[in-house]
Amino acid sequence: MESSKNTIWILGDQLNRKIGVLAEGDPGKHRILMVESDAMLTGRQYHRQRLHFVKASMRRFARELEGVGFEVDYRMSGSLANGLRRHIESHKPEVVIATEANSRPVRQHLDSLGVESRPSNQFLCQPSEFAEWAANRGNLRLEDFYRWQRRRLGYLMDGDEPAEGRWNFDHDNREPPPESALWPEPQRSRLGDLDEEVLSEIPTGAPGEHPVGWWATSRRAALSRLDHFIAEVLPHFGPYEDAMLSDDWHLAHSLLSPYLNNGLLLPDEVCDRVEEAYRAKAVPINSAEGIIRQIIGWREFVWGIYWLWPDQGEGNALGNDRDLPPSWVGEAATSMNCVAITLEGLDQRAWVHHIQRLMVLSNFANLYGIDPHLVRDWMRERYIDGADWVMGPNVMGMGLWADGGRMSTKPYVSGGAYISRMSDYCGDCRFDPGKRTGEEACPFTTLYWDFLDRHKDVLSSNARMARQYANLGRLSDVDEVRQRATEVIAAIGEGDL
Questions:
Q1: 428: pLDDT strictly greater than 80
Q2: CB-count exposure of residue 428 (10 Å: 0-12, 13-18, 19+)
Q3: Which residues face 118 on adjacent strands?
Q4: What letter would DSSP give residue 176?
Q5: What is the pairing mode between strands 96-99 and 71-77?
Q6: What angle do CA 93, 99, 102 make, to 5 degrees?
Q7: Averaged over 130-135, what is the pLDDT?
Q8: What phi and psi, each to the nearest 5 degrees, are found at residue 255?
């Protein structure tokens, strides 16, 4: 006779025994349901390494749970609803319980299926707490939120004051790339039979290269990556986190975001390790503060914004309406070196760091005029750490300014000079970042001035862009810029640039 165990449903981004309802799970009382939905394989162009990461991590976590005595009903199904229906038909649980989903659509879907939900501890600030903090504020400033988080969570605090007398060391973390790399090679994992099984199921047309072990798919391997970061990378983390190098894709970055997003690591355990290293004088304050700010500041700020503004993803304040260019979907190469290197890295590893995402890809998307909804979906499909809650605020709010300034007071756009200063990309490029007209002009520089000209009705009254518009007013070759921009946009769209 079938036992009357209740069911705990574990979603694919909750892969940790300490998360939510599973923390109180009992093998004698609870059965585990996990569902791999075919929706991951159909209808979208997910990077093959993203598919591998999601599926292999889920299957390894199921084995981990079986290893500690849980009965796991692991189902392959056309949809989450079908997986649940078949589970109920087979096991007849009295109740199905899940930790609150990290995605609004999935949370709504589970509610519609009658699944009971329990609060999640996968983030350090609950949406209700963020909403309370945000209430009656005008502009929501990251710095204000970050300091509030520091005080209430206690990280890098000496009593009521921030460690070493400053809240933010970001000014010290904007160095251009060094002449030689300082950072050790990231850890890699050996792919086994489970990985080969997963890879055999991924459609041959999925974009991106096969994985070679950069991304951990188990709790044990993710913890090893954390150890490596704390000991080998964190001491050098701060100064160069905004730099870009042609022959060093990882620089001083933690590479931990995929594991924070799928639950293999939790934010407090990462921050606790950083605090311990700082207090032991193993890392400088700017490095420790930089990673703490990214986790309890920016990451949790984005999470809060996602739940506070459910309509943020609907905007298109600049009216961008162009399709993804051929170079972004593998139909053509590009001669813009910065874009080519970034797209190649994305193809090879399903990951590029935040400045490549913001100041190369998102910047290009805005200057060229790609529909922000297409950019959001493309990035969610291509990035190994892509998630619904991440892409709404990061792309629609910060990267593309599609929400009209609710999140970022001005668009993050620049010409080629910024990329030249913060990378070594321009030295081998056929374009000159200092020129805005002519065949040798950098497309970023041409399109930057054209962008300001095109959108002056929307942006010229923005106080934070007064200097840029003053500079635009001094240009004597605006007509030539417009003509060159028309040529550049046409060439990009045809796959000739």
A1: yes
A2: exposed
A3: 99
A4: P
A5: unpaired
A6: 135
A7: 97
A8: 60, 25
Q: Token pair of 49, please? A: 């390494």
pLDDT, position 4: 72
What's residue 352's pLDDT?
98
Interatomic CA distance for residues 130 and 391, integer angstroms: 18
At 41, is the pLDDT very low, low, confident or very high (cuts 50, 70, 90)?
A: low
Provide mean pLDDT across the span 435-439: 97
The pTM for the full model equals 0.96
314: which 2 tokens? 């609907």
Determine how many CB atoms are found less than 10 A away from the CB of residue 243.
21
CA angle 337, 343, 347 (to 5 degrees): 140
Instruction: Pull the structure tokens for residue 252.
Output: 């001083």
- 365 and 375 in contact (C-beta within 8 Å)? yes
What average pLDDT score do residues 281-305 get? 96
Strand 6-9 versus strand 96-99 pairing type: parallel
- The CA distance from 472 to 467, in Å, is 9
**Ordered structural domains, the chain, with CATH:** 6-118 (3.40.50.620), 127-308 (1.25.40.80), 314-493 (1.10.579.10)
